[in-house]
Amino acid sequence: MNKILAIRLHAMAIRSLILLCMLFPINGALGQAPDWRNIRNGLIIPDESYSDQPYIVKTDDGAWLCILTTGAGREGQSGQYVAVTRSKDQGRSWSELIPLEPTDGPEASYAVLLKIPTGRIYAFYNHNTDNIREIKLDDPNFSPTGTIKRVDSQGYFVFRYSDDHGITWSPERYSIPVREFEIDRNNVYGGEIQFFWNVGKPFILDGAGYVSLHKVGGFGDGFFTSNEGVLLRSPDILTEKDPEKISWETLPEGDIGLRTPAGGGPISAEQSYSVLSDGSIYSVYRTIDGHPVFTYSRDGGYTWDIPKYLHYSNGRLVKHPRAANFAWRCENGKYIYWFHNHGGRFIREHPRRRTQGFQDRNPAWIMGGIEKEGPTGKIIEWTQPEILLYDDDPLIRMSYPDLVEDNGKYYITETQKDIARVHMVDEGLLEGLWNQIDNRQETVDGLAIEWDLGKVQFPLQKEGIQFDHFYDHDPGREDHGGLQIRSGFSFDIAFRLDDLIPGQILIDTRNEFGKGLQLFTTDEKTIRLSMCDGRTTSTWDCDKGMLEAGKDHYMSVIVDGGPKIIMFVIDGILCDGGDDRQFGWGRFNPYLHEVNGAAYWTMGKNLNGTITMLNVYTRALKVSEVLGNFNHHINR
Question: Do residues 231 and 219 touch, judged by C-beta distance below 8 A?
């Protein structure tokens, strides 16, 4: 049997087995429902070995058409090609892969789809038509040969089309002329060879079709050494049937594309575009500055506002590494934004920020966006984030998502470069985000303790509760092995500290053996959660600078046993690490059994101040829920 064919059949068999496990998860030994946020509970999209950019359009015959870059090797290796697959049942089953290019031809990579009103579907992608086998580096000393063998980010930007919902494709590919910019003229070939790729989905505005392109200045440390974004605009692609006659222009005007703000780094890539209700175009993109960048165009992409670092509606800057961060406009006119919620100066100031910025794409977070009136047109205000997807292995890097809406349901695709999946998203998570800013509702689901402590003397002992295990024996396993229960809990506590000296105990549930949890002040002027099962201890602090002596504070602590993450929310602000640390959220030990200690909980030991209320939930609350609790508390 042909070796490549054998590899493909073997890979397909393994993925079929995994798909069965995902459809019928064997985790019911203790009766818990599978966590939909765990990417391994998603539905697998077929590929060979490598799998990238699983992007979907809904066809006029009711199918999902997914395009992806795949191949028998790894990313960037020879044999990489573009293929499509169709699903008629929202991703539960898929057709065999339909290659758009030969699997043994020059590299074809990084494809996106545009469906026009006639039903025709265009697929745009990189193609190494000239079969160039190596590229010169910016710094010839970076490699012994002064070249790089990976050649999937140059060549020609091309398209094919389908008039039968993606089942068959045009026999010819067509090249799109891309206007030369300053970044091209400055590359090692003087623009004779242009470097580029694309992950941004096309869109339609005012009768024209737009396709994103990310120009590359060169190759070296961190692979791409400089980038900027442009748009390819076709005024007639929606009406011109002859692909040879479709016209194109490269935007913006001039010869400089979308870059970082003044003083920012050279990486400005993977622009994602959304069309607002007034016809403005919103773009957000990645950098190595520790923060993503956004800008607006009010004239169809010809000119753009001065780019700025992205911020929440409360003004805080959003943290993000060198990873895809996409925004989508939903059918209801609201927005979803995918990112990874860490970074800041810890990436910007890192000596190898070009490569360090690729790390830590797990978990994936989302924010909700709402249109508001701005000085020159509509703008998007972004909420504080929620965890969307995770993997138990913290080094897994999920990225390049897509959003699909179908019959009122929301689906997200993603890939970790080996397996691409589709996930149905809990609508409650999205509604909570979109309603977050105005939410004044107190959450009662899971509320097990509701203590009014405004008139009691401290220290105080009260009978506590028991929490579910995080990790326990799986009764379905004969080897007595473990099972992740994926439970969680949350605290809402209102308090005042007259000083910030260490050792003030807000909550202590530990027994005589040290088993249980503590919430106490530290010498860093923070509050720390410590959890111990008698074998293992896990701790995490709130951000520095969040506490103020003599001030009334409202703090929520979320312990989420799905991704094994601890989050602090203080006075309505989710801790993001600030300038003191890269991450505001922390992981706890995945083998921590449980944190049940003494029957009676101690509160207020060594306390210089007061505690006025404590609410305890037997589940991990959403960020939007604890913000609703906070708003309810301060508006009573």
Answer: no
DSSP state of 38: B
Average pLDDT, the chain: 94
What is the rounded CA–CA span in Å between residue 207 and residue 118? 13
Buried b (16+ CB within 10 A) or exposed e, 467-497: bbbbbbebeeeeeeeebbbbbbbbbbbbbbb
Cα–Cα distance measured from residue 630 to residue 636, given in angstroms and rounded to the nearest whole number: 10
What's the CA gap between 567 and 558, in Å, rounded? 5
Let me know: does 320 contact 291? Beta carbons within 8 Å: yes
Task: Please state, in angstroms and rounded to a whole number, the distance separating the CA atoms of residues 595 and 189.
Answer: 62
- Class of the CATH domain delimited by 447-634: mainly beta
Tally of helices (H runs) and strands (E runs) in the chain: 6, 43
Does the CA dihedral 138-139-142-143 come out positive or negative?
A: positive
Q: Which two tokens stand for residue 514?
A: 């040290």
Count of beta carbons in the 10 Å neighbourhood of residue 330: 16
pLDDT digits (tens, 9 = 90+) for 373-422: 999 999 999 999 999 999 999 999 999 999 999 999 999 999 999 999 99
* Whole-angstrom distance, CA of residue 563 vs CA of residue 387: 9
pLDDT-derived band at 14, boundaries 50, 70, 90: very low
Beta bridge partners of 69: 52, 82
What gap in Å lies between CA 420 and CA 324, rounded to an integer?
15
Question: Model's pTM, two decimal places?
Answer: 0.94
Nearest residue to 138 (alpha-carbon basis) of 223, 77, 75, 228: 223
Q: How confident is the model at residue 11 (pLDDT cuts 50, 70, 90)?
A: very low
- How many angstroms separate the CA atoms of 417 and 428, rounded? 29
How would you label 176-202 residue by residue, b for 16+ Cβ within 10 Å and e otherwise?
bebeebebbeebbeeeeebbbbbbbbb
Rounded Cα distance, 597 and 540, in Å: 19
Q: Return the pLDDT at 142.
A: 87
User: Do 233 and 301 contact (CB within 8 A), yes or no?
Assistant: yes
**What's the CA gap between 69 and 418, in Å, rounded?**
11
Question: Would you kindly state where each structural domain of the chain is located, as residue ranges?
Answer: 447-634
Residue pair 537/531 in contact (Cβ under 8 Å)? The answer is yes
